[in-house]
Amino acid sequence: MKSEQLLENLEFHDAEPFAQPLLVDQSSRIIRWMLKPGQQIAEHKVPHSPFYVVVLKGQGMFSGRDGREKAYGAGSLLILEPGEPHSVRALDEELIFVSFMQAVESMRPDRTGGEIGRE
Predict the structure, then answer these.
(1) In the predicted model, what is the mean pLDDT of the chain?
(2) Predicted confidence band at 111 (pLDDT cuts at 50, 70, 90)?
(3) How far apart are the first and last CA of the chain?
(4) How large is the average pLDDT for residues 51-60?
(5) What is the CATH number of domain 30-106?
(6) Which tens digit of pLDDT belongs to each residue from 16-35?
(7) Which residues is 60 bridged to in the sheet?
(8) CA 26 to CA 22: how far, in whole Å?
(9) Rounded-to-integer distance, Cα 33 and Cα 19, Å
(10) Rounded to whole angstroms, how far apart are CA atoms 111 and 81?
(11) 3-state secondary structure of 94
């Protein structure tokens, strides 16, 4: 069994949100996202997999298919369908969430196992 302390050893970047791969293997990807207040992730989609988000700390404005932003905070679970457009914006505090998705052939880890493949 492996384990991760999800609210320890956090890393925030000034220029943009930081995405830290926690698990990248043949079947799945788990990524911890750390956003400083006001940082955002522009609208995008995961075409090949459902996309699950668990908010661990802070509050953010998340949008889904309808494009409307809604505030979600710690303890929230968001479930997005494959291909559903989504975006996120941190409010006035640090925002930390974990995302879960299925991997596909084009998203395999590199030789070190530490990098996320591209879609």
Answers:
(1) 89
(2) very low
(3) 29
(4) 98
(5) 2.60.120.10
(6) 999 999 999 999 999 999 99
(7) 72, 90
(8) 14
(9) 5
(10) 30
(11) coil
Run of H or E residues at 35: strand 28-35
Beta carbons of 108 and 85 less than 8 angstroms apart = no
pTM score of the predicted model: 0.85
Q: Which two tokens stand for residue 14?
A: 């000034």
pLDDT number for residue 105: 58
State what percent of residues in the chain have pLDDT above 90: 82
Query: Angle CA(66)–CA(57)–CA(83) in degrees, nearest 5?
Result: 30
Q: Alpha-carbon distance 72 to 8, whole Å? A: 21
Identify the H or E element spanning 101: strand 95-102
In angstroms, rounded to a whole number, what is the distance separating the alpha carbons of residues 23 and 76? 21
Contact 96, 12 (CB under 8 A): no
Q: What angle do CA 98, 99, 100 make, to 5 degrees?
A: 130
